[in-house]
Amino acid sequence: METINKLISxxxxxxxVKELAHQIKNDYNEEITVICVLKGAFTFTADLVRAIDSNLxxxxxxxxxxxxxxxxxxxxxxxxxxxxxxxxxxxxxxEDIVDTGYTLKALxxxxxxxSPKSIKICTLLDKPERRKVEINxxxxxxxxxxxxxxxxxxxxxxxxxxxxxxGVVHLDDK
Length: 174
Ligand code: IMP
Ligand code: MG
Hints:
Layout: E1 2-8, H1 10-27, E2 32-38, H2 42-51, E3 56-64, E4 77-81, E5 90-98, H3 102-112, E6 118-126, E7 139-143, E8 149-150, E9 166-171
Parallel strand pairs: 2-3, 2-5, 5-6, 6-7
Antiparallel strand pairs: 1-9, 3-4, 8-9
The protein binds inosinic acid and magnesium ion.
């Protein structure tokens, strides 16, 4: 089993979401196509878009790289996507965490190949210490140390996505 220690409270998250939404709204004067990276970003995206008071559309893409352990395999699988036509659109990719950077690099390369008007990236959490590939992130909620976190959409072996706060996972002995 594991113990979860609170790292970022619900209140801190909600405050940050509003700040990010405000920044995003001010940076765009055209319709935004928000791409929610499943599954981890579903909670963040739902809160973020409700705080952005301008024209936007929401799309989803399923990405996996992790399996059920806590280390990135470096191999990224792009799965089901709801977005059919990317040409000319202003994309805002919304992620839960940037860790090694492999996932966002693969996603950004994929979308660039489809000729959008622009691509920006927004992540709730950033673990810069863990970066393996360089990736330019436009909006970052919280920079966190190299610890495995869960909650607010983020899982450990598919558990804890429903926690309203972000917590650090501690694996108990045996
Ligand atoms: P990257 O490709 O290594 O940047 O990893 C990005 C993905 O790994 C994130 O979208 C998460 O799904 C997962 N991930 C990275 N760190 C954590 C963590 O601390 N807890 C849960 N999932 C994580
Ligand atoms: Mg993810």
